[in-house]
Design goal:
- The chain is α/β, with parallel strands linked by helices.
- It has 15 helices and 23 strands.
- The strands form 5 sheets. It has a 6-stranded mixed sheet, with helices on one face. Strands 7-8-9-10-13-14 form a 6-stranded mixed sheet. The chain has a 5-stranded parallel sheet with strand order 19-23-22-20-21, covered by helices on one side.
- It starts with a strand and ends in a 5-residue tail after the last helix.
Length: 447
C-alpha cells in the first residue's frame, strides 16, 4: 500500500495518490494533471479512478483533464449532477485498487453530494479521505451553497448526522486525510497538522464534543464570514466542465505589448500585479490590483477579483506562466496575457512603504486589515480595524481624501488592501512593512 499526500500551499489543499499492485487512484486532484501523471509513471502504476469528495468551490478540480489523459473513471457521490460522464457511487459501494478496497461513505452536510472514502486493507479500515466533511480540529462549513443549492440549517443538520452516525463510528486508529489545511476558507479554523486520526479528532476537535444536534447547528453556523465571490463560480465550473489546462495556457500565456495593454484596459480589463510588495510599491500601472505570488495567491486573487473578468497579469520575470497557471486553479481563465511593467509608457504609480517607527497616527488613519481573532490578540491602541475581506466588499465608509497607513500580520494582505484603495481613487495610501510582527517589536500595543 502506498499513499502520498500532495499538498498545494497556495490553495491550502490536499490531494491524495493511492496505489496498490500497480493500480492507482487520485482523490480530489487540483487542475494540473502533471503531478499525478509523473508520480504514476515513476512508480510504474496506472491511474484507474479519480475520486471526488464533492463539488469543490475553492478550486477547479483536475478530474476532466486527468480522466482524458488516463482513461480513469471519475467517481462522485450520490446525486452529483454533471454535464459530463461520471460514476455516481452509492452509499457503501466499493472499488478495488489493487489489494485495497475503497468504500464510499455518503456524508452530506458540507454539500449534498459529499462523500468520504474509507480505505480498507484486508477488510479493515485503515484510512479515510474526508474531503471537506472533517478537518484537523474543525468540520466543514455548511453554508457555502446558501441561496445556490440548499439552506445552511438543513446542511448543518445533515453534517451532524454524517459525523456522528457514520464517520465517528470508524475505529479510533483510522487515519484522517482531509482535503484542506490551515488557511482554507472551507472551515472556520482548521488546525495546523495535515492529517489526524478518528480518535484524536474525537478527543480534541471542538466541533465533535458531546452536544445535541441543535447545539451543533448553532455552533457550526456561528462566526461565519461570507464566502468569497469565486466559490459559486468554481462549484459551477466543476459541475459543468472547463477548457483543458493545456488550451488555457496556450491561449493566455502570451506576452503583451504596451498597445495591447492599453486596448485591454480601455475595453474593461483589470491589471493584476503579482510581484512582491516592494517591487509593486516602487512603481506599478495606475489602478492595478496587487496579489503577491509568494503567498496564498490563488485564494486571494479569486477573492479580490471577479474571476470572469478580463485580466492583464504583471509578473516577476520568468514566473509569468506560473501566475497564469495558478489563476487557472481557481477558474480565472479569461487572461489576456502578461506584461512587463518596464514597457509601460506612462507615469507609474507608487506605494510608499513605511517602517513601524514612521507611523504617524496624528496625520493618518492607521488601518489594521487583519481578521477579528488577530485583532483581539493585540493591536495598536489608535488603529482602526477594517478586515481585508470587508474592505474588498465595501470601502465606502472610508474617506478617499484622508491619509491611510495600512498593516496586516506580516505585510502580504496590507499591500493587497493598499492596492484596492489606490484603484478606488484613494490618493494618500502607505503600506507598513513587516506588519504587526514588526510593529509589536518596536511599538506599544494593547489587547
Amino acid at each position: 500500500m502506498y499513499i502520498e499526500q500532495m499538498y498545494t500551499s497556495c490553495l491550502a489543499q490536499a490531494a491524495y495518490y493511492i496505489e496498490s499492485n500497480g493500480v492507482a487512484a487520485v482523490v480530489d486532484p487540483i487542475r494540473e494533471p502533471e503531478p499525478y501523471l509523473e508520480l504514476a509513471e515513476r512508480r510504474g502504476a496506472k491511474i484507474a479512478y479519480i475520486f471526488e469528495t464533492h463539488f469543490h468551490a475553492d478550486f477547479v478540480s483536475g478530474h476532466l483533464d486527468l480522466a482524458r489523459l488516463t482513461g480513469a473513471k471519475i467517481v462522485y457521490g450520490p446525486g452529483a449532477q454533471t454535464d459530463f460522464t461520471v460514476h455516481n457511487a452509492r452509499d457503501g459501494e466499493t472499488f478495488a485498487v489493487g489489494e485495497l478496497t475503497v468504500r464510499v461513505m455518503h456524508t452530506p452536510g458540507h454539500t449534498p453530494e459529499s462523500v468520504c472514502y474509507v480505505l480498507e486493507r484486508g477488510g479493515k479500515p485503515v484510512a479515510v479521505f474526508t474531503g471537506d466533511t472533517l478537518f484537523v480540529g474543525e468540520v466543514g462549513r455548511p453554508d457555502l451553497l446558501e441561496g445556490f443549492d440548499i439552506g445552511r440549517e438543513k446542511q448543518a443538520r445533515d453534517l451532524y448526522r454524517s459525523l456522528h452516525d457514520k464517520l465517528l463510528r470508524l475505529p479510533d486508529d483510522v487515519v484522517v486525510y482531509p482535503a484542506h489545511g490551515p488557511g482554507s476558507l472551507c472551515g472556520k479554523n482548521i488546525g495546523e497538522e495535515k492529517q489526524s486520526t478518528i480518535g484524536r479528532e474525537k478527543q480534541f476537535n471542538y466541533a465533535l464534543r458531546e452536544m445535541t444536534e441543535d447545539e451543533f447547528v448553532e455552533m457550526v453556523l456561528s462566526g461565519l464570514t461570507a464566502a468569497p465571490q469565486y466559490f459559486v463560480q468554481n462549484a459551477l465550473i466543476n459541475r459543468r466542465g472547463y477548457d483543458s489546462l493545456e488550451t488555457v495556457l496556450e491561449r493566455n500565456a502570451r506576452r503583451l505589448s504596451y498597445d495591447d495593454v492599453r486596448r485591454e484596459i480601455e475595453a474593461g480589463a483589470v491589471v493584476l500585479d503579482v510581484r512582491n510588495g516592494t517591487d509593486f510599491g516602487a512603481g506599478h500601472i495606475p489602478g492595478a490590483y496587487q496579489v503577491g505570488l509568494d503567498g496564498s495567491f490563488a485564494v486571494w486573487a479569486g477573492t479580490v477579483l471577479d474571476i470572469r473578468k478580463r485580466m492583464v497579469v504583471v509578473a516577476p520575470a520568468g514566473r509569468e506562466r506560473e501566475a497564469i497557471l495558478r489563476l487557472a486553479r481557481v477558474g480565472a481563465d479569461n487572461v489576456a496575457g502578461y506584461f512587463d511593467v518596464a514597457d509601460w509608457q506612462g507615469e507609474l504609480q507608487t506605494l510608499p512603504n513605511l517602517k513601524p517607527a514612521q507611523i504617524t497616527p496624528e496625520r493618518a488613519v492607521v488601518l489594521d486589515v487583519r481578521n477579528e481573532g488577530e485583532w483581539l490578540s493585540g493591536h495598536l491602541p489608535y488603529a482602526k480595524h477594517f478586515p481585508l475581506r470587508q474592505l474588498i466588499d465595501d470601502s465606502s465608509s472610508l474617506d478617499p481624501n484622508a491619509a491611510y497607513q495600512i498593516h496586516c500580520a506580516g505585510g502580504y494582505r496590507s499591500v493587497i488592501a493598499a492596492s484596492l484603495l489606490q484603484a478606488r481613487g484613494f490618493a494618500n495610501v502607505a503600506n507598513i512593512e513587516g506588519g504587526f510582527a514588526a510593529i509589536k517589536a518596536e511599538l506599544p500595543v494593547v489587547v
